[in-house]
Write a structure and sequence with these properties.
Length: about 210
């Protein structure tokens, strides 16, 4: 797992050398489970972080990649857990630890040369999730770890700042979905609410 994260970070850092402008972003991303995932964990989480990089291929379309960490946790005072051969009722602790690795494309509704003070966009990410699901009911415990295909449409906006608009704030809503098919959850789904900062970088000598 650590090797995957390191390789992904190296790829994001090195890919920008092939483009004239790189946009880096670091965001805080709380999340809310929806659908069948909500039957397992119903509480929203305040634990979420996203790091991404993007590069314009023309005046309105950018491509890039992202790494995201999301952690869901819930404690129930009394919970009945059904399994083959019986059931147990006791205090329950339930967790999801999710790493998301995506390639993405975004369409910006303003040209990169004329961004102004508000730049709305829509995007689509496709990639994989590393999902670690844990549950403990009384003395009974189970763990499930797996890699799953995932995708994530999003809608957001950038608010450029500074005289040269070389940095700013980023806001978005992202819907993440994965074909899970484990423990009565066929489709893993959750919504991210993101607020973050971004900054632009140019290769040496190419900005002016």
């Amino acid at each position: 797992m650590k090797k995957t994260i390191i390789i992904s970070l190296i790829f994001l850092a090195s890919a920008g050398t092939a483009f004239s402008q790189t946009i880096w972003s670091l965001s805080y991303e709380p999340a809310t489970p929806v659908g069948e995932m909500r039957d397992f964990i119903s509480e929203s989480t305040l634990v979420g972080l996203n790091f991404s990089a993007g590069w314009y291929i023309n005046s309105r379309i950018s491509v890039g990649g992202s790494i995201q960490w999301t952690e869901f946790y819930e404690k129930n005072e009394r919970h009945t857990w059904y399994f083959d051969g019986g059931a147990v009722t006791a205090n329950a602790w339930k967790e999801f630890y999710i790493w998301s690795f995506y390639a993405n494309a975004k369409y910006h509704f303003k040209d990169v040369e004329e961004e102004g003070r508000f730049v709305p966009y829509v995007g689509m990410s496709i990639g994989t999730m590393y999902i670690n699901q844990n549950a403990q009911v009384g003395t009974y415990e189970f763990k499930e770890k797996s890699w799953r295909f995932a995708f994530a449409p999003e809608v957001g906006a950038r608010i450029p700042m500074g005289l040269e608009q070389s940095w700013g704030f980023n806001f978005l809503i992202r819907y993440q979905m994965s074909i899970y098919e484990k423990n009565d959850i066929n489709i893993l789904q959750f919504l991210n609410y993101s607020v973050g900062v971004y900054w632009k970088m140019w290769p040496r000598g190419e900005r002016y």
